[in-house]
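User: Thanks for the earlier help. One more: Delta-aminolevulinic acid dehydratase. Can you show the sequence and predicted structure together?

Assistant: Of course, both are below.
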Amino acid sequence: MDGTYPYTRLRRSRTHRWSRAMVRENALAPSDLIWPLFVTDGTDVEDPIATLPGVSRWSVDQIAERAKEAVSLGIPCLALFPHTPAEKRDATGSHARDADNLMCRATRAIKEACGHDIGVLTDVALDPYTDHGQDGLLDKTGYVVNDDTVDALVGQALNQAASGADIIAPSDMMDGRIGAIREALEREGHTNVQVMSYAAKYASAFYGPFRDAVGSRGLLKGDKKTYQMDPANSDEALREVALDLAEGADSVMVKPGLPYLDVVRAVRDAFNVPVFAYQVSGEYAMIEAAAAAGAGDRDALVLETLMAFKRAGANGVLTYHAAHAARLMNG
Ligand code: PBG
């Protein structure tokens, strides 16, 4: 001992489990999770999605069962996405405004089964309803037009709110849609319906399995780069968030999740609002593929990635692993 050993030993507090628990800076709980669910036609249907192993489309009656399961697990909110049959799709996504579409029926079924014990978040964008798979209306050149699309999205949002949706979540990235939707919700008396904006949503290669799940992969030609953000940008994400908050968003989202944790942190530091992150379908598939290949322990990968979102400053995470993760957390 010649005095060269450190007095400060960060390993000291890591020695025992109790001590690690005591100095832990972030915690994970089921209340951090939002569970995305895919709705399909029929009764008593579970339709597995090949590119999302372990995730299925459920018929409306089964969605109500999943909602009860979520309540018992302590998950506070579900996010709904429809698998719209090809014959109900058209150029303007008109089925998005139909009060009897899968989203509205599923929302009503969840509210009937669980009331205010769970929140229902409904995605606003036309891609599950268009026959071209884009999120909005096209002009003659195939460009997604902004303002006419916003009008259509307002109709979709009001339709969802009328069916009992608690949180309207526009994922389309049109300019001005948050303000237009907020104004319409107020006008129609939906003053307590929240808006969670997909504020910083990137044109990402991680959405592939989702497009399978909603049935738009084969329909989509080209990409969504004229409206979704360039993965090279992060200052622009702060402008998007600022605009959506000014237009009345109650909370904001960053999407995808893990590759964009720097954006989650930047938004958390710049704005004092609830920030959510979406661990998207391609991220889920990557974890499942890694586990299946023996490259890592599935449960550990799931919990570590979810904790990373908390560390980055997210208030919560949309994840297809929600039910499994909640079970792990509940022990
Ligand atoms: C629709 C929408 C997408 C996702 C959520 N809402 C796909 C897209 O923008 O092409 C992706 C979610 C996921 O990959 O899990 N606008």
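User: Great, one quick takeaway?

Assistant: The mean pLDDT is 97.
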